[in-house]
Amino acid sequence: MKHRRVGQQMKWTVLAPGESRTLFDGQALHGVRVAFYEVRPASLPKRALRKLGLLENERMIADAWKLFECEDCLREVDAIWLSNAYVPPSHLAWLLEQLPELKWVYSQKAGTDHLDLDSFRRRGVKVSNNGPLSSRRVAEMALANIVAQAKQLPEHVALQRRRRWRSLPSHDLSRQTVGIVGTGNIGNELARLCRALGMRVIGATRDPQNSSADATAYARLFRLEGELDTLLAESDYVVLALPLTPETRGLISAARLTHMKPDATLVNVARGPLVDEGALCRALRRGALGAAYIDCPTHTPLPPWSQLYRAPKLVLTHYSSVNSPRAQEDAFEQFTSGLEQLRETGEPPNRVV
């Protein structure tokens, strides 16, 4: 694979989101040229022309990508930083065609369900996600949901809005069980936090004998396939912290919800399609479930008519678990250090392909 050289130094070209420009301005990266991109949504007239067949989809996608610093350098790009914003698969497919020298894709997201990994694999392009970068943040959001429900904070807010004064009982967390479905980086962080509060922590993973679960944090590990219903039945709080795959899509179905305690709380800090949201809303309406907290629903942003807005005892946290004033800076540090590692060893960190 050819590399461009300046004197005796290897020259790399990287593509980064426009909002990271000030971070790159403050740090000199030797032998690296940085171009910036911005993905602009298609205008209503362009979408209309596309539907009428008067504008090619490829042309519309090309117009959506605005490059800064070096508009003609796509064919020289070695690495790209995909921001936390959603990029449609059609855009990624088009982009891949424009980057014949691409060696590494760094995705700021924790999951990879938004990426066509096979297309990168076929081209020999290495792909990394953010690994443990946002695990603590997401775990803290899940813990906040658990504490809010145990102490009835949503009900206190509702009483305040109605100008009513009423003392409410709250649960002792040290007497409750949290079941964490998915024992990766996020699940382990949450398990340690809950264990520190005295909760009984159980988990579900694909293979309890060969998992990355922190054995000191869990009282018991269940097999995801075949034993999940047992975890659901034992848990006061069920937290979903596993990736979205064809096998996990719709994991929490209408049938699975019947295995949960009627006063239990479902917390989803993973992907929305893990849960049958229609079945969840029906369970909440008939009082078959205590409460639910959803960070990232199946469709974002939710349309005003979504049933999730109307479901009783359901709290939306608007995909805020990874939203932090430090998020961009942390991703910048992870991308630039990963770039240096890739250039020195040929292997990026947190590789998934």
Short overview:
Helix content is 34%, strand content 18%.
How many beta-strand elements? Answer: 14
* CATH architecture heading of the largest domain: 3-Layer(aba) Sandwich
CATH topology term of the largest domain: Rossmann fold
What is the number of helical segments per DSSP (H or I, 4+ residues)? 13
Largest sheet: 7 strands, mixed
C-alpha Rg (nearest Å): 23 Å
Helix-strand pattern, N to C? Answer: EEHEHHEEHEHEHHEHEEHEHEHEHEH
Mean pLDDT: 91
CA distance, first residue to last residue? 18 Å
Sheet/helix structural class: alpha/beta
Q: State the domain count.
A: 2
Instruction: Characterize the overall form.
Output: globular
| Strand fraction | 15-25%
CATH class of the largest domain: Alpha Beta
* Contiguous runs where pLDDT drops below 50 for at least 5 residues: none
List the helices and strands and how they pair.
Elements: E1 4-6, E2 9-17, H1 21-25, E3 32-39, H2 44-51, H3 57-64, E4 65-68, E5 79-82, H4 89-98, E6 104-107, H5 117-122, E7 126-128, H6 135-150, H7 153-161, E8 177-181, H8 185-196, E9 200-205, E10 220-223, H9 224-234, E11 237-240, H10 254-257, E12 265-268, H11 277-285, E13 291-294, H12 307-310, E14 314-316, H13 327-345
Parallel strand pairs: 2-3, 2-5, 5-6, 6-7, 8-9, 8-11, 9-10, 11-12, 12-13, 13-14
Antiparallel strand pairs: 1-2, 3-4
Helix pairs in contact: 6-8
